[in-house]
Amino acid sequence: MIKEISLGIGLAGVIFLAISGYDVVPILFLLMAAGILIYVARSRGMLVKSFSVAPANASKVNFEDIGGQATAINELKEALDFIINQDKIIYLGIRPLKGILLTGPPGTGKTLMAKAAAGYTESVFVACSGSEFIEMYAGVGAQRVRQLFQTARDTATKLKKDSAIIFIDEIDILGGKRGQNTSHHEYDQTLNQMLVEMDGLKVNDKVKILVMAATNRVDMLDPALLRPGRFDRQVKVDLADRSGRLEILKLHCRNKPLSDDVSLNEIAKQTFGFSGAHLESLANEAAILAMREGCAEIKQHHFLEAIDKIMMGEKLEKRPPREELERVAVHEVGHALVGEKVRPGSVSMLTIAPRGQALGYMRQTPENDSYLYTREYLENQIQVLLAGSIAEEIVLGNRSTGAGNDFEQAIKTAGQIIKSGMSELGVVDPDILPADLRHKVISSIIKEQEKKVKDFLGSLKGAIKQVVNVLLTEEKITGDNFRKLINSFSIARPQI
């Protein structure tokens, strides 16, 4: 109503001046310019910026809905208890935590944990992203930071809540180290305002505010943001282990009809390195595959196919020529034979169906999740990587460019041996190691493993051809069937 009245009065004034003989063209020009500026400012969110606000329990996410993160949840709950037990912390003279930083790889559940925290403390939940605060116009980011905290206070007061949680996703954009952007100081001003707002949080505030943030690049954050009194706690939300993956799979399969042959424990075993988001996608893709086949239940082979799809991509329609397909089969069988030798029972799947950038692949499953590796283990990995190309040479008489990525990984693994102090050089600094010496040691490591693989596969030329014939016919061989094949061929496997 006020805007309409002001517009009417202004228009009447312009008409009166025109009737009185004044030149109103400059006035009209200025009004038009002001209107354009206001329009541009509004379109860029300079003057009006709304944040996603949800009252307590609105998202209906609780900690029981998050699997595989028991340690992180317990640490987070301990920090959240400061909000719940406010009277107790005042009595003990405890300074409340102002900020909690969730760190870890993408897809591990950091945002879900923030939403669950709001429900756990019955707080208002205000969510935003770090990119929402960065603009080319000076002062806009700082204004939005002030507005963010004010929105949290006003919403909590309106809903008669005494606490609010502000969640900033990808805070490394907002809280990056100052001085890195030399073109203008908008980034620095925005971060400075964030620091001021967090410093202003007091234990006796009418609305208690806890700032939660998430990032997978904690190394990029400004040290002032991480000091005690701002982000007091860092909660590591890491990739789940095998039991954690099983827990996550059970959560995502609650609403899905599973066949009796489904072993979620086996699926968890084969998904080392998968995040919670990957596992959710895995369960969803398995259901989609079951629907495509017209199945009423999701079967084990649907999950196995979904693993391949997530790791490698969708199957491609293109089919290589027969000669090329045979070379791919020889290559993958070489990988599988050496993989089965160095770690019996580890081969999970080998196929010549093109997916993503790969014409074929062999997938291994570790017996247990491993985080520390010996030199023997790394050398075995190099042998598996070299086996495909060497099998081509033994069976077909030459090698191909298909092993380029294998060689890159083999060199990287050999470099890891040097970096870890397990080479003949002992403990060295890789950054100051002469390039020619590094090359010499890596070449020595790879040539030694190459000789072992040649000795092993040299006596298995006939067996390789027999497995290749089966693979060309069936396109895919599971690990169990592969082991049955090599046992039926009575392959004498010499020691590597």
Could you explain the architecture of this structure?
The chain is an alpha/beta fold. It folds into 4 domains: 2-43; 52-236, 3-Layer(aba) Sandwich (Rossmann fold), CATH 3.40.50; 242-312, Helicase, Ruva Protein, domain 3, CATH 1.10.8.60; 322-488, Peptidase M41 (Methane Monooxygenase Hydroxylase, Chain G, domain 1, Up-down Bundle). It contains 19 helices and 9 strands. Residues 43-49 and 491-496 have low confidence and may be disordered.
Short description:
The chain is of the alpha/beta class.
Keywords:
9 strands; alpha/beta; Rossmann fold; disordered C terminus; 496 residues; three-stranded antiparallel sheet; Helicase, Ruva Protein, domain 3; six-stranded mixed sheet
Describe the protein's topology:
Blueprint: H1 2-19, H2 25-43, E1 52-54, H3 70-84, H4 86-91, E2 99-103, H5 110-121, E3 124-129, H6 140-158, E4 163-169, H7 171-174, H8 186-199, E5 208-215, H9 223-226, E6 231-236, H10 242-252, H11 264-269, H12 276-292, H13 300-312, H14 322-342, E7 347-351, E8 361-364, H15 375-396, H16 404-419, H17 435-458, H18 461-474, E9 476-478, H19 479-488
Parallel strand pairs: 2-5, 2-6, 3-4, 4-5
Antiparallel strand pairs: 1-3, 7-8, 7-9
Helix pairs in contact: 3-5, 6-8, 10-12, 12-13, 14-15, 14-18, 15-16, 15-17, 16-17
